[in-house]
Specification:
Elements (H helix, E strand, L loop, with lengths): L7 H15 L4 H7 L4 E10 L5 E12 L5 E8 L4 H17 L5 E8 L7 H15 L8 E5 L5 H15 L23 H17 L7 E5 L3 H14 L2 E7 L2 E4 L6 H11 L9 E3 L1 H5 L5 E4 L18 E3 L8 H10 L2 E3 L1 H4 L2 H15 L5 H26 L3 H19 L4
The structure holds nicotinamide-adenine-dinucleotide.
Length: 417
């Protein structure tokens, strides 16, 4: 089977295996890190609006908690599987470690179709999940956050249910909450902002002048929109191409991101933005630009198109946009990839700041959040860049090497292996 067809957990294990070989991880440590330390499968009866009862199935995976309580999002999705949740929990473990946060990695999911459910049904499902999974959650155990199709409102219901179970307020048991319930300033643009700090450091290393440098952005939701806006305001980057699920637009002289957002809000898509040419998503990926920022879906740069990618920097805001085969081709062709679990770690980092503020009961100003995020991203980028040079590997493998090394060290210091 080609690596491009693998189930996500097998792929996560293969990536770990490669890093383990490079740093010559002891067999027991390696085997420990190939598996989640703990997982809970739950069955949830929920009263629907029509008076019937539906039975839902959910999971919470705590992959590794050697460096601190596990942390990771909760997904509501009709095609959720335990293997997807395991893989995502493994990736969260490496992401928190590469960012040097005092956290482990976890993930959760419920098999459901949130688009077909009313807000009241979603609330009852969210509360039912916490009544079952709450026994293994807590600020010192495992802290969920929003992910695919879960929202700040869902986090608020979950925090409330958990607080009712405990008998007191526990805002820090979950992050991504609405601001009035203890959310953090600066969470909205954190993922893209962290990515921009990473691009800034990479450009310094590559000797690339970012003033007027060109960028193509695939996907124009939370991550993509802020990437285009912050690329310009923080770094002077000119976004020349933008796409969403309907297609893309291109203007070599630059696109006004704010105007493209307004056009998308009015028409439902970036397509037909005045003064730009319509292009396909495939064409966008292959444009001659300085920076390509995938911010949509997984598996966009594959063995089929990697040879035609011309960008000097590929900044992965999306999770898993590049397949293992494509990685090898990009590395050989000299494209500088900022791998997803480094480049898009700004979100989890500000989630961690939210947890810290909840513990303090004292809230920071947005400027403080930005400054601390910059410090964390810059340190993480340089740790990865150094490992890439030391081991002569691409940045993704270097990020694994740094992260796996840190988790392995914690497991050993605890005397687990
Ligand atoms: P979003 O739902 O806000 O936006 C997704 C965008 O991708 C939309 O504009 C959609 O039209 C577009 N899209 C969908 N299918 C597409 C296709 N085939 N081609 C081109 N565009 C397509 O999602 P988001 O929060 O911006 O997340 C985007 C990616 O970033 C995901 O991979 C997500 O896992 C990752 N990510 C996001 C965050 C965050 O804090 N938002 C954090 C870490 C990682």
């Amino acid at each position: 089977m080609s690596t491009e067809e693998l189930n996500p957990f097998v792929m996560a294990q293969r990536q770990l295996d490669m890093a383990a070989e490079i740093i010559q991880l002891e067999p027991a440590v390696h085997e420990l890190l190939r598996w989640p330390v703990r997982e809970l499968h739950v069955t949830l009866p929920v009263k629907m609006d029509d008076g019937s009862t539906e039975i839902f199935h959910g999971f919470r995976v705590q992959y590794n908690d050697s460096r601190g309580p596990t942390k990771g999002g909760l997904r509501f999705h009709p095609h959720e599987t335990i293997d997807t949740v395991r893989a995502l929990a493994a990736w969260m473990t490496w992401k928190t470690a590469v960012m040097d946060l005092p956290l482990g990695g976890g993930k959760g999911g419920i098999i459901c179709n949130p688009k077909a459910m009313s807000p009241a049904e979603l609330e009852r499902l969210s509360r039912a999940y916490i009544r079952q999974v709450g026994r293994i959650l807590g600020e010192d155990m495992d802290i969920p956050a929003p992910d695919v199709y879960t929202t700040p409102q869902i986090m608020a219901w979950m925090m409330d249910e958990y607080s009712v179970m405990r008998g007191y307020n526990v805002p820090g048991m979950i992050t991504g909450k609405p601001l009035p319930l203890g959310g953090s300033a600066g969470r909205g643009d954190a993922t893209a902002r962290g990515g921009m700090y990473c691009i800034r450091e990479a450009a310094k290393k590559l000797g690339l002048n970012l003033q007027g440098a060109t960028m193509a952005v695939q996907g124009f939701g939370n991550a993509g929109q802020y990437a285009a806006l912050l690329g310009e305001s923080l770094l002077g980057i000119k976004t020349v191409a933008i796409s969403d699920s309907q297609g893309g637009v291109y203007n070599p002289h630059g696109l006004d991101a704010q105007a493209v957002i307004a056009h998308k809000n009015d028409t439902g898509s970036v397509v037909n933005f005045p003064g730009a040419d319509n292009i396909s998503n495939a064409e966008l990926l292959e444009l001659k630009v300085d920076i390509l920022t995938p911010a949509a879906l997984e598996n966009q740069i594959t063995g089929d198109n990697a040879d035609r990618i011309k960008a000097k920097i590929v900044a992965e805001l999306a999770n898993g946009p590049t397949t293992l085969e494509a990685d090898k081709i990009l590395y050989a062709n000299g494209s500088y990839v900022l791998p997803d679990f480094l480049c898009n770690a700004g979100g989890v980092t500000v989630s961690y700041f939210e947890q810290v503020q909840n513990a303090y009961g004292y809230y920071w100003k947005e400027a403080q959040v930005h400054e601390l995020l910059d410090e964390k991203m810059t340190a993480a980028y340089h740790a990865v860049a150094e490992a890439a040079e030391k081991y002569h590997v691409d940045n993704r493998m270097a990020a694994y090497v740094v992260a796996v090394g840190r988790v392995a060290e914690a497991c050993k210091l605890r005397g687990w292996v």
